[in-house]
Structures are given as structure tokens and as C-alpha cells.
Queue: 2 jobs
Job 1
Amino acid sequence: MVLLVAVALAEPVVATGFDVPGVLPAGWSTQVGATTGSGDKEPSIGIVPEGRDGSQALRFVGRGDVERWPVVLSRAEPAALGDRFLVEGWVRTEGLRREGGQFDNRYLGMVFEDAKGEIVEVGGKPVQAVQAAPDQDWTRLSICAAVPDGAVSGRVVLFVSMTGTAWVDDVSAERIPAPEWAVTETTRHRFHTLPGGPMTEAQRKRNGAILAELEGRLGLRASEPIDYFRYPDRATKTCLTGNAGNAHVSDEHTLHSLWPVDSHETVHVIARQNGRCDSPFLVEGLAVAMSGQWMGEGLDVWVRRFREDGRLPPLSRLLTSFQEVDDRLTYPVAGSFVAFLLCRGDMSTFLTVYYGEGSVHERLREAYGADLETLEREWLAGIGG
Ligand SMILES: [Ca+2]
């Protein structure tokens, strides 16, 4: 986060210490954020001389009999898709707890609105926010909020809708311009890097070699050059892409990674350039199977361990609910099963299942002449242990 601000001059749009006694800063307002009854009793929200270093601060005092909970909002600032805002603030809390039907809101965040003033949700949530701890001394909270498609403005939002006391001071929001990526092109890649997250010449060559090797093993070619974005840290990747994972693919020629060399995502990109696979189990299984290991250990070692622990789910469940199961379990299991299929048949047989239509059960039966349960038994028998 610090790095982003350092490499690209950020433009502050909101900055207040809540230092005018008794009144909210110019442009700030309140509106009802939640109700826990039909009454109009509100929490005490005001500016008090209890800020950091003896200054004024905004204070929320909630009680069990409150039924109408206001949010505190900054004025609307223009926002456009692609913009990001770094929202920061200092928060102190004392005894925050839910009573009755209260909601667990104790956050600093940003809310975005469309041209009609309607909230534009992000990932099913109205606010991109960071929660304060229930009891904490002055702590700096920060959140990077990405402007969603359709939004034209954004506001900083502060919300406490529970019993207890919270103080907020020195709130700011900075517009973070697009970062200045350094680009190095090779025949097959465009490597994009930021200061603090470089990629050496040897690593670029290694990525090129991995691409060629994987194409050979898959029998597929990535016809388009690959845009490889390497991030210096997870906070920067999350802020810039909205995806907090170690690495991901955003379209058929673009991968984003924390690592300077990435084989797993390269498999995804090659596969995506050659068609669509509708099964996350097969997509991740193929990428893991190609590397032959998971977090430094053999795939079958993981499966044996899960079986001994009683944690190995039936494959039928992974086929339907892959994203609902812990990925520390799903990835090596899917990888091990796909590796088994690649031993049982050849790559092109597997790819008919991968790119096939209809249920995965039917595709497996057609390609391997056996149903899922039979294949699963064979696979586990081969793993032993
Ligand atoms: Ca202050």
C-alpha cells in the first residue's frame, strides 16, 4: 500500500481530523444505515474533545435501546471505473458488542453510487470496508476500494450499529492513479513489473521455457502473447485487481501473480486460449497435475494424508462444490486425480473431457469407459497407503 502511494502520486479527495467542535466537517452528513426496530431512538454521534493527541474526534455511542442507526458519510467524490481509493482512518473502540438484533457493523469503508444515487454493490456487498476490533486503542485502519462498473461517485462511510463506543479521527481518502508498470517484451510474453517486485532476465527466460515445455506436454499452443503482471505484495495485488489470491488469470492472455515465475497460471492461460472448460475441478486439477506437486510435496502424499485424517471428500462432491471446499484440500486432490487420468489415457483423451460438453460424469464415462466411482476406486487403489 505504501509502495503504491510512493510510485504514483496520490490525489487526496477526503481529509478531516473532525476538529471543529460540535459539528461534522463540511460536506459530511448522516443517513439511516440500519434499523433494529420501528422506533426513532438513535445512538449518540458527535464531535468530542477525545481525539488523537487531545484533538477533537467523531464519537459513536450505541446502546441496547437504539433502533435507528445512522451512517456517517463524506460528500460524494467523482469516481470512474479503474479508479481506486485508499481510505484510511484512526479508530479507537471500547466494549463494542451486539445486543438483541443489532448488526455487526463497526467499519471504515467506501460506498459507490450510480448516476441515480443508487448504491452499486461490489461482490454482493454495498460497502468495501474494514472492520475495527471490538476493543482497541487508536489503530490505523485502511482499505483499498476499487470503483465498480456503473459507479459515478464514491463516499467514505463510517458505521457503528452496535452497543459500545467508537472514536474515529484523521480520516482520509486518496485517489490512486493507475500504476506505472515497466514492460519487457519477449516473443511470447509481455512482462509487467512494479518497483519492489522485479523480474530478472533469468526469470523471464525461465517463464519462456516453462511456456514452451507446458505447450509440448499439453499438445496445445498459446497463440497470443501472454501479459504477465507480477505484483510486489498481496496488498498491491488485491488493491489493483480486487483478487487477494496468490495468483489468478483474468482473461485468456493475462495472468496476475505474486511470483516472478509462475507455471500454474501459465497452464491456465494456455488452456484458456484453446477453449473453455466449465469445471473448476478439471481446470485446477490440470494445472496442479502439470506441476506434479503441491506446496513442495507429492500429490499422492496429500491424498493419503487427507484419507488418513478422514478429510478426503468424495469426488462427486468436488465436481459439484469445488469452490465451497477449502482450496488447500481441493487443489492437491483434483491434481492427483487428473494425474491419474493422464496416466490412464493420454493428454488428448483427457482434453476431450476438459473441453467437453454435458456432465463431467458423462464425459469421463465416454473418454475412459468407466464411471466416476470406478475411476475413483482405481485412483485411490493406485495411491495406496
Ligand atoms: Ca482530530
Job 2
Amino acid sequence: MTLPLPLGSFPFPILYYHRVAPGVDPRTGVTPERFRRQMAILASLGYRGVTLREALALAAGQREIPGPLPIVLTFDDGYLDNYDHAAPILGELGFRATIYFVAERMGGRVDWTGDPLWGGHPLMDPGKARELVEMGFEAGSHTLTHPDLARLPEAEARREIAESRPRLSDLLSAPVTTFCYPYGSFLPIHAGMVREAGYSAARTVRRYRLGRPEDLMTLACRPVSGRMGLGRFALTAAAYRMLFPLRSSGGKRLRPERGESL
Ligand SMILES: [Zn+2]
């Protein structure tokens, strides 16, 4: 298919997950069975799950996208269950994904919140993360310690953003080129810090709004939790199949409805 790609836009949808585990609380993730069905839906709609880095390369370098339409799959925090349950399902379909790791917490447990819903869950260690990187998964940065950047002094925020990049790169023997804001919390100054630190893009937790142009340092996405039914997942993915190429072609037929959430 041909996608006319205007400069400064990012024409592919991004999904955003946390955990994938049996019996997971639906507010924090999906079960492996549900995840498998969701990925099968994407494949049947003509999508291929890709990393953010691959999608950026496709958007920057080519107007002709070969084969299935890329859909970016992202996972926040680097849960061990992503390795145990999500990666094998993605591997079976030839899909890949970007996982955002917290550099100083790898191999440990979630300690950045006292909320029992999220706290204490085991995080992937560098060895397992390296295995995924060798399979073609992308390791992105989710800072050093998962702070709320908007509440940090400027120098601290800069350190969390900038130092996590070489730290993860050393741990995983891989380039780290994309970033994700913890809690989706950031100020405009932080987007500048992300750019200055050498990242090529960053994902927020902001949901897509029709007609809003995409800034690579504050990319929007569609969060997926266990509360999203399969029917809604399929409808959303089918809608993106139509909307994203339309939007990237200049949006003449797609009148922006400001504030309308997808
Ligand atoms: Zn996070």
C-alpha cells in the first residue's frame, strides 16, 4: 500500500500495554488468552506488530510500505510477564514490540508506588531483556527510577532522561533510541530534554484525538487494559486501519473533530 507521509507526522497507530499474565487484574493488564486473541485480530485485519524504532524508520525513509500495515506495540515498565507470556505469542506471529525499561529497577520489583495493584510485581532482568533484543524487540527508556518528571527539580529530571539511555544501552548491549514518560507525566521542557538526550521519539499516555498533529517527542497512543472488550479492540483496530492512512494523506476527507477521543 502507498502512504503519503507528510513531514513531521507519524502515520502508524500505537498500542500501549502493561502486564500480560494469567489472572491479572484487568486494570493493569490482559490475560495471555486475551492477548493472543487481540494479536490474532490485528493479523486478520492486515496489521504487523512492530517496534517504534522500525515504524520511525518506515515513516522517515519510505513512502511505499511493503506488506501489512505496521502497528506499534509498546509495553511499559518491563514486567517479567512480558517475557514469559507476551513475547512468545508475538514471536509466533512474527510480531515485535517496544518494551520501556526502568534502568535501575531491572531484575527487581515495582517499588515506585505503594498501590498494591501495581507495586511488587517482578521486572525483567537484563539477561532476559537482551534475549528479546536479540529476537528483534526494542528496548526503550522509561527513566532510571520511574519518577513523576513533572514533580522533579529540572536537573534530576534531566538526569533521569539522559542517563537512562547509556545505562540501558550498556546493560542490554543495544542502542536505546526511544523514550516513554512515566505516568505519562511531563512538561514541555521535558520533551526538549528527551530530544537533547538524543532520543528520536517519545510516547506519552495521551489518547489519540482526531485532527491533532503528532509531535515525535509526545506521541499519542491507545492504552489497552483488560477492561477493553475484544469487540471494542477489534472495532478500534479496524477504525485505525482506515483513519491512519486517511490522516496521513492530508486529512481532506477527515474533518478534525477537536477533542473527540478515538
Ligand atoms: Zn511506567
